[in-house]
Amino acid sequence: MTGHGTLVIVSIYLPPSKSLLRSDLEALLALGDSVILFGDFNSKNRKWGCEIPNTNGTNLYKLSKELKFEIIASLTPTHYPDTLTSRPSTLDLAITKGVSLYLHCIEALHCLDSDQRPFILRMGPPAGGLPKPMSKVTDWKRVSTALEEIDTPALNNIPDVVQTPDEIDSSIGALTNHIQKWSRGYLPTPPLKKADSSLAIDDVEKAECLADSLELQCSHTIPPVDIHHITRVEEEVRHKTSLEPRNDLSPVSLDEIQKLFKNLNAKMASGLDGMSNKAIKCFPITLLSLLVAIFNACLKNCYFPPVWKEAVVIGIHKPGKPRDLPASYRPISLLSGLGKIYEKILKSRLSEYLFSKGLIINEQFGFRPHHSCPQQALRLVEYITEGFKTKKRTVASFLM
């Protein structure tokens, strides 16, 4: 399957009380032309992520230079001690010699409660002999037909005309459940170190660990200066949003929805509803018509469904940061695809209104099409340059 010659694979276990011997390694590596030693070497070295090295680890790294073999280690620890005073370490390694296979990955598997994690090594054919990669081809026309044929009782109970906020929420819920009948996914998260140095292993602990870290990072270091001012602003916002709209926004049409769907990025991740853009692009005409009714009801009621405001917050590892620390992950909020489509509908109508009424000054560059920060910086440079030419001083005021 790999196109490689005979491989000798040896399972290794070196007890903590035993010393690593050069003669043992020489004998094992002499078993064949291509040898993989795989297992628990109980050897610690900073070269493979162990903070405190031991004698076996120092000797193993030294022997790798002398005997010319490769040491392959996981990026995450494979041993998590039960005691809080002990630190996780990488005891499980792979040693290869004479192997020309391509290393795809080596990783610890966090699927057991044991202090010793199993780990997996994936290697493929050598360079130049890679098989043609397998590709998955989805028959999206068939998916669209399946969505139309799935029987969801709640979808059949939606009224012909969606008017009130309650009807909007129930319609969105029925539509989401309809799609979720065949769409699901899972995203694993590595173990994280808590503030007390213990490890968050299960999903609930990991979520709480990330939430605590994000709360700490996003909290104000000092309380707001003027609480009364903030209260007045909030009251004014509530008053403004409770008023009837003076101008009606143009209704959403089926043609507009179809154009928006056509331009959706199919690779974007789904939100809390698990509804991917790939699935949304396959909506049959019946679901598109339902969505048009929901969007128009939202516009009429000045309503943004709460379910579209909820996000799945995931952590993306920051390059070069420790993988077991929650602060090493930056948050990304995954919103509902349908909610983002509604946002585009609102944006197009609000932009049209603001520009037609001249409510956006020419000097504003933020959140405007065909305007960017470099252009605004260039505009400032031009002002300063003109001041130099006329021997005038230019003063700028910046709001932070």
Automatic annotation (TrEMBL):
<dbReference type="Pfam" id="PF14529">
    <property type="entry name" value="Exo_endo_phos_2"/>
</dbReference>
<dbReference type="InterPro" id="IPR036691">
    <property type="entry name" value="Endo/exonu/phosph_ase_sf"/>
</dbReference>
<keyword id="KW-0808">Transferase</keyword>
<protein>
    <submittedName>
        <fullName>Probable RNA-directed DNA polymerase from transposon BS</fullName>
    </submittedName>
</protein>
<dbReference type="InterPro" id="IPR005135">
    <property type="entry name" value="Endo/exonuclease/phosphatase"/>
</dbReference>
<feature type="domain" description="Endonuclease/exonuclease/phosphatase">
    <location>
        <begin position="8"/>
        <end position="115"/>
    </location>
</feature>
<keyword id="KW-0695">RNA-directed DNA polymerase</keyword>
<dbReference type="GO" id="GO:0003964">
    <property type="term" value="F:RNA-directed DNA polymerase activity"/>
</dbReference>
<keyword id="KW-0548">Nucleotidyltransferase</keyword>
